[in-house]
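As the next step, I needed to go through one protein, both as residues and as discrete backbone shape codes, included below for the reader:
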Amino acid sequence: MTSIIQSSRKQNPSYQTYNVLLKWMEKDREASMDKLQQELSDFGMDMLAEKVGSIKTRSGNKWQAGTSAGPPAKRSAAGQSSLDGHQKEQLTQLQLLEENRTLRALLEELQGKTPRRRGPGARPVVLLLNDEYGTAKGGISTIHCQMASLLGSKGAEVYSTVLSATEDDKKDAAADEVHLIFPTTSDRDKREPCLDWLTFDHATRYPSLPAVDFIVGHVPITSHAARQIKEQRFPGAKLVEVTHVMPEDTSHYKSDGKVLSIGDEQKNILEDLKHADVIISVGPYLHDYYRRETRDFDPHYEFLPKLSDIFSNARVKYVDASVKVVLSIGRVKGVERLKGYDLVAKSMRDVFVALPNTKWRARGIAKEDFQASRDIIQAKTGDIHFTPLEYGTQKELCEDMETASVVLMPSRAEPFGLVGLEAIAAGVPVLVSHKSGLAMFLKTDPDFDRPIVEIGDDDDEAAKTLSKRIIDILKNGSREFQAAQRLKERLLASEYWAASHTKFLESFGLKG
């Protein structure tokens, strides 16, 4: 049995477990299901082993109901059955055939060889693909966690791939009723885990994926992985693709290489979306853009994230002091123009002149990127000082906001802008670029558009506009914090997310 499972690991997982069972039946016809279950467990195929255990239990109950003596393999040779030897042998063979037939069908289903059979009211099984389960880096990962948690809270059986996870990540997943799936690794393999494991090596890195009804990928990081896993392993599952990026907007503010690759990136994204059963876009701008790019593909829903209670429960208090704090969020290296860090740097020169006791804090700068980030900022401003802060948890980010006088999101292009929405929910004054999906959302209600700032194409003019807005907020702190609190209350009272979450859940056969 051991050699059978070892050799099967080298095969395509779409029929890996089928061959395990087939060889088991051929070579060891009277091997017990206990033995098969133990072998699968020993080789890390825990989900399969668990399913075999459930079949074993059901099969045992069935045979016990059929005869007073129970399964032949469990009976002593004499005194417990009125059946003669020939009848016993026939019953044993019938039991083995029934077990093998049932187990073969289950294992084929587990690896996508046959469609899953779901009865009325059955819980949908959803596999979401991502490299992490956490919110420290914001953006896609935060949306991923929210979607997984939302599905779990409404009764779905939810699984999430990860490349690795901290103890806090594991606790968060458990609290969200999400099962994390880790890649197989070798102590002698020193290579760092990467997204290619999900996209191209899922057969060997994630050999024991559960049978699923839905596979969710995030554009662009796991959209192709989701498509590959569906096509190669679970053809009966529905493919749900979630759009987060817009290369035609964002790549122009990166390197020349990124600009030249826009066409290829866009082609790859649309190719994956073409194979989707459902498309979900984060925010109105992405929804509008991909509605056009996919020629009004249906079903295609907009998803508006609900803010974590960490932010909505924040207690921001204005303190009238000469020291002011300007908070910017996001990495600098490689995306300084995209995220508007060069504009912030130019603006802060004027802010420091007008209000010398102002501090600038930048959350999201890794230690290894600090020198390069400082060089980028000082190239625009000279010897200007800022406090670099590494990526942190949502709790740490909220604490930053609670001590900030204003939060900045001056991106030249931003498909959505979750961090700006989090700042609004916390109740702190915030400035949001008009070139963002968040600004498009805020413009849908005249009570919501106060934070929007125009970021023009002329860099000097854009920096002047930004500095004037920053200085005005810092000089009129009490008024601005009162306005920010009113905006928070109106935003949360509107339950802006509710309709989109209902549509999202309905995509998986769940009620909102």
Summary: Residues 196 and 225 are 8 Å apart (CA to CA). The chain has a mean pLDDT of 85. The domain at 318-494 is CATH 3.40.50.2000 (Rossmann fold). The chain has 23 helices and 13 strands.
